Structures are given as structure tokens and as C-alpha cells.
Amino acid sequence: MDSKTKNRPLTPPPDGGRPTLKTIAFMTGLGITTVSRALKDAPDIGAETKERVRLVAKQIGYQPNRAGVRLRTGKTNVISLVLTLDEEIMGITSPMVVGITEVLAGTPYHLVVTPYSATKDALAPIRYILDTGAADGVIISRTEPHDPRVALLTERGLPFVTHGRTEMGVVHPYHDFDNERFAYEAVRELVERGRKRLVLLEPPPHLTFYSHMRAGFERGLRDFQADAVSFHHINIDHTLVEIRDAFETLMRSDDPPDGIVSGSGSGAIALIAGLEAANKTLGKDADMVSKVPSDFLRWLRPEVVTMYEDIRVAGRELAKAVIGHIDGQPSETLQSLSQPEFQSAVQVSIKR
Amino acid sequence: MDSKTKNRPLTPPPDGGRPTLKTIAFMTGLGITTVSRALKDAPDIGAETKERVRLVAKQIGYQPNRAGVRLRTGKTNVISLVLTLDEEIMGITSPMVVGITEVLAGTPYHLVVTPYSATKDALAPIRYILDTGAADGVIISRTEPHDPRVALLTERGLPFVTHGRTEMGVVHPYHDFDNERFAYEAVRELVERGRKRLVLLEPPPHLTFYSHMRAGFERGLRDFQADAVSFHHINIDHTLVEIRDAFETLMRSDDPPDGIVSGSGSGAIALIAGLEAANKTLGKDADMVSKVPSDFLRWLRPEVVTMYEDIRVAGRELAKAVIGHIDGQPSETLQSLSQPEFQSAVQVSIKR
DNA sequence: CAGCGCTACTGTATCGTTACAGATTTGTAT
DNA sequence: ATACAAATCTGTAACGATACAGTAGCGCTG
């Protein structure tokens, strides 16, 4: 107890602030380096020493200083969620953030939200993160078939995951909802209800899941023998008013659709409004199947058939995938596709 | 050009990575300290020197290393948004995050989302932030009259802002929606429609805006001479199913309410479901006024009178307030109350 | 022309951590 | 004994920025 108390932090106890390695070094009589290595379970530190260090660290509630680690190693312990400021009205951001943070809670990672305005370059936040080393991993959404963000991140070697897939021959982590399947099953459902003239409210053409959803829709039309009614000039990125007005016009036309597949929950609302503005009744003049991120429609318009896309789960998957990527797991193992499921007709218990 | 090129970063150009003060020092032939001070416009640096430094810094795209600044000064340039993982179904988080980031975009601040699960201590994330110095400012919601988080943050001197007010004699920044006024105007509206037996779906009693909303409701009852129907055991934090079932029971009772004030948009959905389950019709057997965070209800149930609470604006106000607090502005000047407004009856253009 | 004060600039130490290159001790083979 | 390896532990430097305590040069006063 005295033969060992020689050098070490010759300086007195660091002070009253939060504990650092120096504090532990002082308390254990060890060198700062030793303490550092002991806490990372390095092989050249004695078992008993590690034990002592860990005990003291725990007792005094030591938590490594993020700035110190970051400065020295470049590791930020930050995951960046890159978002458009102009998010959909039905706000998928909430459950997404919740899902992500649920996973991050058990890790040293913090979630930083990095926005970009749609009027600007979607690459801007990516460049910022790359240039400033602001994060260890990135989560991006609104993925395009040839996504420049994916190209840039891959080239620069920064781990990331996309919400949605790409078609650029690059193997990378992703999580996606099976929109092909969704549209296919939606068509099946409508045809089973005797509908034959179907319309699709689709995603904007530049996003990857546009072609997925269209493909599923068209495959369904073929397999179940129904016809498509064109609604091509309108997509889920249009305003609710635009969608409603366009759909009202369509429903007032000579040969209106009798089955509707809506690629978004908020779009569905506008479609319903348009349909009713044309003096038609949902469930009578037409049936509708919609993808939804919440329980809303099911409560207010039970006549709509809904397929639930669980964004919270998506957030969890995305978070797990980026971390996996950071940890060096092969990208192939970090890809997942969630299957659509029809929501149970009536009300199951809802959280909170 | 040579008489000055004496000492300075004797070491060669920092290297190919991102530029640091050293890079600029090398390029300008100045000392690192001088460059640092020049960039902060310190008074002891010559005007021309500052100009040169600024020019070079801009040219090479210098951005201060956050870890360096943080380690040395303790300034994190982080604002922490503290959230419950169990957010309401109608997700106010999305627009809130958008509003906050809109303001932070013009500042050096990053937004970090710090969650806590409702099952745990709401103080935990606050303690974490205080103990680790994780943020320069904090945004908290679900504010209580005697909020331990406010007490702790005040005591420790960490800038913060609350979404909602407190009643603890502490002057602090806040942004709030005028729920008193909302409930009062809601009662007025219902009475003007000939309704006399009113029910309130209120916030949970431990939150501050519970008493605000109740006070407005009761003042309205007095001023406009209507009666209250008790629905006390249920509040907006209950599940949709619980609310619906309870409300169905109430509507089937001997003397059901004919006017409904809903303190939340998602609650309104459950109330409508309950009312209809009791074979009543909204607009005929009863009218309803609801506070809403989106355009949903207005589109799907135009018979509901809605008052819009703009969460995005709230996010902006909150962000401005924390930053103001950090900058040392007096708390009194960082308090704001947003007034409820009835939404225009039909559809105005909706964003995206 | 010594001394003072001012302007403009600079070196050193430091924040907390880790990479790296030792240093010390002990045990073992020779 | 001597050398050598293995097992443990340690000091120094560095990441990038800033606080602080200078220093150098200049003009002016008396």
C-alpha cells in the first residue's frame, strides 16, 4: 500500500468535477494508461488489476469523456438520422426516432438529427457529415435507385443504412417494406371484393419503391385480371388538396375506378375526400386498400382495408443495421425486408 | 514573404485531412493562437490579419473541430431533446423535431434526441446530461406543476426550456399552448351550437396543462351556462380502446353529454368511435371540438370543430428560447404562449 | 535615450483519452 | 550466474482548440 504509491498522478486528485481516468488512477495507485487499458480489457493487464479498476470505476460512476475519445480516436459515437424538413403530414418521423433510440439506448451511441430542406441538395448533409466527421454512421431515407448519397458514402467508406433499396450494384445495409407485395396483395383483395378497374396512388417516380409498388400492382392486375385506371400524373408527394382535386375529377369521369390502392396513409385521406366530393361512397362505389403508418384510418374509416407499415420496427432495424455496419459485419447480413400484413378488422389494444 | 516566414507551425502542413487551425497558421504564416483569435474577432488582432485569416479559412472550408472545442471549453454545441419513448399515437414528435432543427440549422448547434422509457425515471436523462455534460441546453415536455426536472436543471444551472409551464415560483423559459383559452372557446362554440351538457377529455392530472384546460372548461361552463358531465377517470394518456369503451358507456347512460371537448386529436378519434358504438351520430346527437396537431380530423371528420396546435411552431419557439437562455438572455423574455385558433372550415392548401 | 504604454502577435499548458514505445519484475532455460 | 522471454505496468506524445502569460516592436514622453 506504500511500496506502490510512488509516482502515478503526482498531481492531487483531479478535483471535484466528474471523474476521469486520472481520478481512477489516483484512487487505485495505477497509471492512467493502465486504467485506460484495464477498462478496455486489454490482454496485458493483470486480472486482479482489471477487477479493481472496474470496481472503482463503477463505484464512482466513471463515464468516458466523449470529447476526449472523439478527439483522440475520431470515434464520435454518433448516429446521424438525415431527414427532409418537409416530412409527410402523417409524420413517420416520430415512430422512426422512437425505434432508433430504443436500440441506441443500449449502446454508447447518441442520435443526432441532421435535416435538409427539400429545396436544397440532399447531398449537403452527407457532405457535411463526411467533411466534419460528425458521425460514425448515417441513416438515410427516401432512397433512389441510383442514389448519389449511397455512392458518396460508399466511396468514402462511412457506414450507413438506407430505408429503402437501391439498384446500383452496390451491396449495402438496408431495411425496406415489401411494397411490391403490398400492392400485389392489395390488388388481390380488391379483386376478391369484385373490383376490376383499379387505380394506384403511387410514390414519386424517382424513389426506388415507386417501381416496387408499380411492379406489384401490375403483377396483381395480370394475375387477378383487373384493369388499371391511369392516375399517373399524381403521386403521394403531392399536396392533399392536389390529390383530392385530381381524384374528384377522376371519379367524375365516364369510367371511374372502383378499386383504389393507396401508397400512403395521408394520401388515402385525400382520396377519400375526392371520392366523396364526387358524391361517391366508399365501400359502395369503390373499395380502398391503403398502406398506413398508424391506426388512424382504421378507427375513422373502418371501411378502408389497411396494411400496417410498422415504422417503429423499421427504426429499430435501421439502427441495428448501422451499428452492425460500423462493427464490420458484412452488408449482406444487414439487409431486411418487412412483410405487409392486413390489419385485424377491428380494434386491438393500442399503445398509450 | 520571407522575413515573416520564421517560426510558426515548424511542422510541415498538417496533412491531407480536414483543415485545422494549424493548416491556416501554416498557410498564413501566423501562429496558431493568432489564427484562433482572429477567427473569433478578438480585439488584439490587426484588421488586415483578421481579413487574411478569414479569407483563407473560408477558401479551404475550415470548420472548427467540435471535439477539440468541447474538450477545451466544455461547450458541446448540442441541444438535447428529452422525449418519452411512449409518444402519442398522433406523433407530435415529427413536427417538433422539424421545428427545432429549422432553427438550429442556422446555428452551430446539433440536435440530439435523448429518450427515456415511461416506466423509468423521467429524471434519468436529465441526470445523464448533467453528469456527462452532454448538452448546452435541454428541451423538455410533459411539464408538471412542480417539475423535478426543472428544479434540478435550475439548481445545476443548465439552460433549458419547457414545453408547458410550471407553478413553482421559478422563472424559466417556456413555450406553451393556451389550453385555458382553448377549452374556454371550445365551450363557447358548443353552447353557441345549443349544447348544454358538456364533457371534457382532459390531460392526465399530473401535467400542468391539466389544470389550465380544466380551468378554461369550467370558466366556460360558468360564463356560458352549461353543465359538466363527469369523465374524470379517463384522460388523453389512456389507450384509444380505453377511451372508446368508457365513452361508449357514457353515451349509453341515462343522461349522456351532447357536447364534447377533446384535449387531444387521437383522443378525439377514440371518442368518435365510442359515440358511434353507442349508436349516436356526431353533429346530431352531439358536437365536438378538439385540439389537433394535424389536418387529419378536418379531412376525415369535417363535422368536428378543430383548433390547430402548431407543433412545428412550438419547436421553433422552444429552440429559440433555449438558445436565448444559453446566450444569457433573461428568462422573462423567453416565454411565449401560442393562441388557439379555429381552423378554417374547409380545406386550405396543406404542405407536402 | 530610458522608460512607458500600446498594438499585434506568440508559446506553453491543458482539457481526457489512447497509441506507442519503453520499463520493471519474475520465471526459466542455459 | 546470465540471458531471454513473458507478464505487467508506465511515461510521453498527440488529437484540435483555447486561456493565459508573455514578447517584440513602435512611438511618445520627459
Which descriptors would you attach to this protein?
41% helix, DNA-binding, six-stranded parallel beta sheet, 352 residues, alpha/beta, 15% strand, elongated, homodimer
How much strand of chain A?
5-15%
The description of the largest β-sheet of chain A is: 6 strands, parallel
Oligomer: homodimer
Mean pLDDT of chain A: 91
Strand tally of chain A: 11
Helix content of chain A: 40-55%
Strand order of the largest sheet of chain A: 2-1-3-4-5-11
Instruction: State the distance separating the first and last CA atoms of chain A.
Output: 57 Å
Largest binding interface between chains: A-B, 60 and 59 residues
Structural class of chain A: alpha/beta
The dominant shape of chain A is: elongated
Radius of gyration of chain A: 27 Å
Order of helices and strands of chain A: HHHHEHEHEHEEHEHEHEHEHEHE
Task: Summarize the model shown.
With 352 residues, chain A is of the alpha/beta class. Helix content of chain A is 41%, strand content 15%. The first copy, chain A, has a 6-stranded parallel beta sheet, with helices on both faces. A 5-stranded parallel beta sheet of chain A has the order 7-6-8-9-10, with helices on both faces.
Describe the secondary-structure layout.
Two copies of one chain form a homodimer.
Chain A: H1 21-28, H2 32-39, H3 47-59, H4 66-73, E1 78-84, H5 93-104, E2 110-116, H6 123-132, E3 137-140, H7 148-156, E4 160-163, E5 174-177, H8 179-192, E6 197-201, H9 208-224, E7 227-229, H10 240-252, E8 259-262, H11 265-277, E9 287-292, H12 296-300, E10 305-308, H13 311-326, E11 335-338
Helix pairs in contact in A: 1-2, 1-3, 5-13, 6-7, 8-9, 10-11
The first copy, chain A, binds a DNA duplex (30 and 30 nucleotides) through helix 2 and helix 4.
